[in-house]
């Protein structure tokens, strides 16, 4: 168990708490499991419904189906597949209002992008979770302890270029760009380019001088779609690119991640996030997901993302095979 997962394992429980390319999924609308009783005092309590959601990108679909297939084992539950529908705001509003019962949300997203939208930068994953969960609870949403991996933003570069220039950190990159005689080609995705916690804010956070900003902007900057940043890096059309820490492309030879030595990118650990009345009434929902959370390391999530994004497997099948091999 990693230090982070061990840290979360010691945390007290709550109330028994990119990949942008959408993969095609064949999903049933509902599934039922019979026998036993969950949260009912009668020997044959009624079924209860759990609507499982997710955002539309591959990693979120995988996480959604990890929850969906795990929760099939609960007694007398009727599952409804709402996976892959909507963005952050849509899913958050739905779980808050009870339109869906559960999806996975990232701790950094709850802290920095959802109401009340905190500006304070907290780099400790446990602290981000605790404070994000407190904000969520105030809105009628419960967050279980998160998984060990983070899909936070990263800046990456060509390994050979890094060795030749000595650029190993974001601070090194800005110092190099400030002194460079020519521009440094950069490729970033559109969301990262526009988000206040993305490309614009990085220069301010690191107090980059005008020369560094100019060297990494203008004609040197390509704004493209998620995933294509790595292809521009591989082709030599970009020297630096942005991505996510759970991207499978980061396992390629010849790519290195620049250390965020200035502490800019918040931790984004995924946590099962539920409509509070649902987990109040059925605490076994979060309990059933604990083994899944424990199994989700960064290498594991990259492998799952690779199977969907690179190999073309369906998120539902990938999730089910992972549960069979690594969890159950």
Largest beta-sheet details: 5 strands, mixed
Which structural class matches the secondary elements?
alpha/beta
- Rg calculated over all Cα atoms: 21 Å
The ordered H/E elements are HEEHEHEHHEEHHEHHHEHEEEHHHH
Instruction: Using the coordinates shown, work out and report the CATH topology of the largest domain.
Output: D-Maltodextrin-Binding Protein, domain 2
Note the overall shape: elongated
Average of the residue pLDDT scores? 89
Domain count: the total is 2
Distance between the termini: 17 Å
| Relative helix content | 40-55%
- Uncertain residue ranges: 1-43
Total DSSP helices? 15
CATH architecture of the largest domain: 3-Layer(aba) Sandwich
CATH class categorisation of the largest domain? Alpha Beta
- The side-by-side strand order for the widest beta sheet comes to 8-7-9-6-10
User: How many beta-strand runs?
Assistant: 11
Tell me the fraction of residues in β-strands, as a range. 15-25%
Describe this structure in words.
The chain has 328 residues and is α/β, with parallel strands linked by helices. It folds into 2 domains: 3-150 and 269-327, D-Maltodextrin-Binding Protein, domain 2, CATH 3.40.190.10; 153-257, D-Maltodextrin-Binding Protein, domain 2 (3-Layer(aba) Sandwich), CATH 3.40.190. Helices cover 42% and strands 16% of the residues. The strands form 3 sheets. Strands 8-7-9-6-10 form a 5-stranded mixed beta sheet. Strands 1-3-2 form a 3-stranded mixed beta sheet, with helices on one face. Strand 2 (48-53), helix 2 (58-71) and strand 3 (77-82) form a beta-alpha-beta unit. Helix 2 (58-71) packs across helix 15 (315-327). It is elongated. The chain starts with a helix and ends with a helix. Residues 1-43 have low confidence and may be disordered.
């Amino acid at each position: 168990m990693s230090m982070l997962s061990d840290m979360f394992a010691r945390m007290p429980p709550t109330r028994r708490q990119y990949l942008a390319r959408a993969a095609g999924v064949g999903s049933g609308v509902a599934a039922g499991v019979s026998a036993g009783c969950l949260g009912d005092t009668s020997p044959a309590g009624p079924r209860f419904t759990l609507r499982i959601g997710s955002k539309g990108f591959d990693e979120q679909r995988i996480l959604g189906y990890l929850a969906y297939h795990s929760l099939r084992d609960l007694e007398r539950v009727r599952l409804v597949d709402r996976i892959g529908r909507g963005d952050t705001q849509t899913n958050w509003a739905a779980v808050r209002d009870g339109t869906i019962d559960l999806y996975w949300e990232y701790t950094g997203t709850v802290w920095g992008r959802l109401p009340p939208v905190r500006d304070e930068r907290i780099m400790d994953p446990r602290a981000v979770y605790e404070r994000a969960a407190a904000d969520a609870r105030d809105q009628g949403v419960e967050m279980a302890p998160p998984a060990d991996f983070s899909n936070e933003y990263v800046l990456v570069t060509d390994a050979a270029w890094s060795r030749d220039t000595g650029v190993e950190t974001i601070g090194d990159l800005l110092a190099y760009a400030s002194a460079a005689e020519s521009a440094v080609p950069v490729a970033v995705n559109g969301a990262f380019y526009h988000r206040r916690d993305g490309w614009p804010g990085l220069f301010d956070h690191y107090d980059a001088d005008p020369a560094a900003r100019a060297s990494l902007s203008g004609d040197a900057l390509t704004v493209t779609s998620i995933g294509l940043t790595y292809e521009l890096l591989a082709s030599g059309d970009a020297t630096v690119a942005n991505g996510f820490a759970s991207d499978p492309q980061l396992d390629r030879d010849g790519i290195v991640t620049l250390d965020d030595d200035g502490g800019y990118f918040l931790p984004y650990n995924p946590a099962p996030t539920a409509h509070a009345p649902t987990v109040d009434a059925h605490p076994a929902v979060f309990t059933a997901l604990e083994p899944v959370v424990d199994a989700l390391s960064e290498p594991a999530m990259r492998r799952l993302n690779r199977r969907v994004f690179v190999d073309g497997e369906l998120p539902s099948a990938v999730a089910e095979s992972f549960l069979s091999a690594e969890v159950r």
